[in-house]
Design brief:
The structure is a single chain. The chain starts with a strand and ends with a helix. Helix 3 crosses helix 4. The chain has 158 residues and is α+β, with helices and mostly antiparallel strands. The protein is 34% helix and 13% strand. The protein has 2 domains: 56 residues, no CATH class; 82 residues, Orthogonal Bundle (Arc Repressor Mutant, subunit A), CATH 1.10.10. The strands form 2 sheets. A 3-stranded antiparallel β-sheet has the order 1-2-3, covered by helices on one side. Strands 4-5 form a two-stranded parallel ribbon.
């Protein structure tokens, strides 16, 4: 099942399967790929995800508490687990994530590729990963969205 919500960074399509969120997609939405099923705006898991995302965008929620089931390789899953540990208003470099996984900076590129494959952005905060020199680097939703998400979190600190 799936639903769509409006957000400050454009419409978001939220996909649920078997009681867990499997994807959050930025508009424009792809027509192929993940199985979607029927639209269901009142499904409890989807409705709670929308509620928490709205609270996040309103700066009233800093940590999500949702059932997640991202599909990926073992390495991707390990990277995504590390991303959840990068808290609200914080950033980490690809190298820092590699070190948290017990790897060297040489694994930064692999971390970046796994980061880019994150199917549940915002909730699994891939936007918080930046270049070693502090620059914004690639983001599946586009650098403008990444910057807006980081600014939303930074503004809340002051």
């Amino acid at each position: 099942m799936w639903t769509v919500m409006e957000s400050p960074i454009g419409d978001l399509r939220i996909v649920e399967q078997h009681g867990a969120i499997t994807a959050i997609e930025f508009s424009p939405f792809r027509s192929e790929g993940r199985p979607l099923g029927a639209r269901s705006d009142d499904d409890p898991v989807l409705a709670e995800t929308v509620r928490q995302l709205r609270a996040y965008f309103d700066r009233d929620l800093k940590e999500f508490d949702l059932p997640l089931a991202p599909v990926g390789t073992d390495f991707q899953q390990r990277v995504w687990t590390q991303l959840v540990g990068v808290g609200w208003g914080e950033t980490a470099s690809y190298g820092e994530i590699a070190h948290r996984l017990g790897m060297t900076n040489a694994a930064s590129r692999a971390v970046g590729l796994a980061n880019g494959r994150n199917p549940i952005p915002i909730v699994i905060p891939c936007h918080r990963v930046i270049g070693a020199n502090g620059t914004l680097t690639g983001y599946a939703g586009g650098l403008e969205r990444k910057q807006l998400l980081l600014e939303l979190e930074q503004d809340a600190l002051f």
